[in-house]
Write the structure tokens for this entry.
Amino acid sequence: MTTKSHAKPARQVLITALTAGSLAAIGASAIDKSELPTTDKSHIAIPITASAHVTPNALYTAPDAPPIIVADWIVAPTTRGSALTPREMFVAQTIPRQSYVTHTRRSAAPMASPTHRRTKHAPAAFTTPAADIGQSLVGFFISNGDEPGENAGLLIGNGAAGGIGQDGGRGGLLFGNGGQGGDGQPGQAGGNGGNAGLFGNGGAGGAGGASYKTGNSFSVGGTGGTGGDGGLLGGAGGAGGTGGAGFTESGAAYGGWGGAGGGTGLFGKTGDGGKGGSGIASTGTGYGGKGGTGADSSWTGQAGKGGVGGDAGGDGGARAGDGGDGGDGQGFGRAGAGGTGGQAISQASAVGGNGGNGGNATVLGAGGSGGNGGHGVANAGTGAGGYGGHGGRGGLVSRGGFGGNGGSGESNSGQANGGSGGDGGRGGPGGPGGAGGLGNGGLSKSGNGVGGDGGVGGDGGFGATGGAGGKGGTGASTTGKSYGGNGGDGGAGGTGGQGGTGGTGGGGTTSNGSNGNNG
């Protein structure tokens, strides 16, 4: 009977021990010893992936052995005549196979030196992760957003434009522009513009989506997105997005409102308000959207202007959108002007939009001017122009804003009313009042034509004169009556100041408008 030999397990133990010893001897070329775990010298467990796992001990010595392939690279065992000591052992760490460089398996011939093995057969895992981490760190701090709405790197880069109805990405905290907001789907609001960091421009707001309806139904366009804020130390605020148009066959159609302008930091210009959307109805009534509000100024820059009102049209009537208000001037910043009212046209009555009001100044600078009224043009109904917006209040030793002019009114067979001018703004201490806006004309072929009244002049500040009243508009008609608009009164002077001159009345064939009173 043949006795079963125990040489095979012993050989496995020797292979395992020799592998650990060889790797320990040459491990400096491929293993960072600082990453090796601390082990107890009294017992060393070596989790090497092999056919058997044993704990080597000092009873076994390391005789000659052929080269062994471990993890796809060659280990040439060194002939020793002594036992392996615990300090030559190590706990092998598991490394994923895909992290190694793929190469053709070579013959198991001994290597010339550890340096030769390190340069030609070193695993890629010891070099590639460092490069990847470096690239990731750079991208984390310095990069542009590339996906829709993606933010820039933390410090430097531009934000990406938003997708459909999505906000734009943020710019870098140090340098970079915010991304533009995405345009909305039908009836959906546009995305907001992304903000900048210290230096950069805010992204513009996205446009609201247009809405199309058939039959007897109402339609509402989407609101424009808000502009992003400019940089704290430099950069402009983004403009508000345009409101979406509303279209319908026989119902009411409403244009979306324009988006508000974006702010900024200490020095830049802030964003203007977006234009209101148009409201168009084939046989119904159309309503234009209101223009967006301009953003308040930085402490030294220009405030945003109000957005233009949306236009309107429809056989059943049309009412255009009002202009947006201008932003206030903060600190030493300049106030923004109001937006112009939208235009209206209809077979029935048509009314132009009113101008937006000018912004107020807080410390220095003139008040913002009011926006002009929009025109109203009708066929059989009344055509009326919109009113001018009011001027804003002035700062120290600064005048008030001018009133906006009224819009014209026209009609074929109905009455035509010209829009009245807006009132001038009050002057700051030591500043004159703003002049009132002009009334516009009313022109009709067979109906009556009535001119709009002039705006009232603003009061002067301490020791300053009042603003002049605006002139009245002219009334005109081919076969009907016509009346001139009244002139606006002059503003009162401040303490020790002179009052403003009243405006002249407008002319009319039936009667002229009266002159305004002096302040």
